Amino acid sequence: MNFEKLKSIRQKYEELSAEIVKPAVISDNRAWTKLVKEHAALEPVVQKYEAYEKNHRDLVGAREMLSTETDPELKELAEIELDEKTAAEERILSDLKVLLLPKDPDDDKNVIVEIRAGAGGDEAGLFGAELMRLYKMYAEKNRWRVEDIDLNESELGGVKEAVFSITGDGVFARLKYESGVHRVQRVPDTESQGRIHTSTVTVAMLPEAEDVVVTINEKDLKIDTYRSGGAGGQHVNKTDSAVRITHLPTGIVVQCQDERSQIKNRDKAMKVLNTKLYDRMRESADQAYADNRRSQVGTGDRSERIRTYNFPQGRVTDHRVGYTMYAIEDFMNGDIDELLEVLRIADQTSKLEAGLE
User: Fold this and answer.
1) Which of the 8 DSSP states describes residue 179?
2) Comparing C-alpha atoms, which of 101, 116, 95, 115 is closest to residue 173?
3) What DSSP line would sit under 30-64, residue for residue?
4) How far, in Å, CA of 322 to CA of 305, rounded?
5) Which three-class secondary structure state does DSSP give residue 126?
6) Taken in order 259, 261, 262, 268, is the CA torsion positive or negative?
7) Which residues share a beta bridge with 198?
8) How far apart, in whole angstroms, are the C-alpha atoms of residue 259 and residue 272?
9) Sheet with 305-310: strands ordered across
10) Bridge-partner residues for 163, per DSSP?
């Protein structure tokens, strides 16, 4: 255990504690918010380190008592305390190792969610709509804010493509393991012979690049406007309010038709473009790590099949960790914390095994 690092973290925490109460800092809301977030991030480590120090003092005291005490009853009590404090120290040190793991700098970011129907025709689109509902329900349970950006629906009410943002505390940290191919196995409503069909939907969880500078040259953009389709009323359908932006150097295309205002749609589309360019930069920077990483969870590649939803058997299986849940209805209603926690622990375990401290 790197105790010098822990002492340094505590010193930084104490400096921040003094800084965030200064009137000059409080008056600058942007600077104050940044410092408060940094302070909050260090707090769990400091608290656990102080718990270690207290437990270690008790452990040393129990050892001293055991070596000097002559009274049989007191010696027995010292032995019990020694066992308890030794076990507690092992637990605390294990927790500290996890807390000291390198944190994903994007964990605190908001998320741009992209859901696209894959193989399976109309059934894939219908399941895409159900996944969109799942993530929106999960966001609601966590009191996160959801904002629609673009929606391309099928005639049966399915989703060919859906883009929306989720804003809140630690959104990406919770949802980043959802990126990948989601496979569904069930009997479609349109199937008269009762045969099970297999369809796929691709999900991408992109950390929103709010505080990241991504240089975008206006000359590299091709901006088209068009009339919105689908629901939205006569006003939406009669004006060229929808916006499509093509980033010529990369070929990335984004669009937004959720707002009635062309300006608002353009702003939302630019936010998505900024996020996609940042995601591309992020993937490139992380490639060496991803190639060498011995993770059960995987890299979150959108081409990787991560999960199967088997409705006839009522089960959801995540293939990265070999974990199966038999409560598919609850899961589809946004009750996904159990599986997300399993994925988080598997990710941490793999990093510890790789010696990433």
Assistant:
1) -
2) 101
3) HHHHHHHHHHHHHHHHHHHHHHHHHHHHHHHHHHH
4) 13
5) helix
6) negative
7) 185
8) 15
9) 145-153, 159-167, 111-117, 197-207, 180-186, 305-310, 315-318, 323-325
10) 114, 150
Tens-digit pLDDT profile for the chain (357 aa)? 788 889 999 999 999 999 998 988 899 888 898 899 889 889 999 999 999 999 999 999 999 988 887 888 888 898 999 999 999 999 999 888 878 877 777 888 899 999 999 988 889 999 999 999 999 999 999 999 999 988 888 888 889 999 999 999 889 999 999 999 999 999 887 666 778 889 999 999 998 876 555 678 888 888 888 877 654 444 444 567 888 889 998 888 988 887 778 888 888 888 888 888 888 777 765 554 444 443 434 444 555 689 999 999 999 999 999 999 999 999 999 999 999 999 988 888 887 777 644
Look up residue 192 and give its two tokens: 């008269």
What is the number of other CB atoms lying within 10 angstroms of the CB of residue 285?
A: 10
Distance of CA 47 to the CA centre of its chain: 24
Distance, CA of 117 to CA of 101 (rounded, Å): 36
Q: Tell me phi and psi for residue 297, to 5 degrees.
A: -75, -35
Measure the CA–CA gap between 8 and 2, rounded to whole angstroms. 10
| Residue 145 burial (CB count, 10 A) | 12
Nearest Cα residue to 320 out of 302, 300, 338: 300
pTM over 0.85: no
Alpha-carbon distances, residue 264 vs 16, 210, 237, 257, 270 (angstroms): 38, 17, 16, 9, 10
Q: What are phi and psi of 19, to 5 degrees?
A: -70, -40
Classified as helix, coil or strand, 149 is strand
> What one-letter code names the amino acid at 14?
E
Q: Which amino acid is at 102?
A: P
Question: What tokens does 203 get?
Answer: 């999900």
Radius of gyration of the chain, Cα coordinates, nearest whole angstrom: 26
Alpha carbons within 13 A on the beta-carbon side of 4: 0
**Side chain identity at residue 312, one-letter code:** P
- For residue 236, the one-letter residue type is V
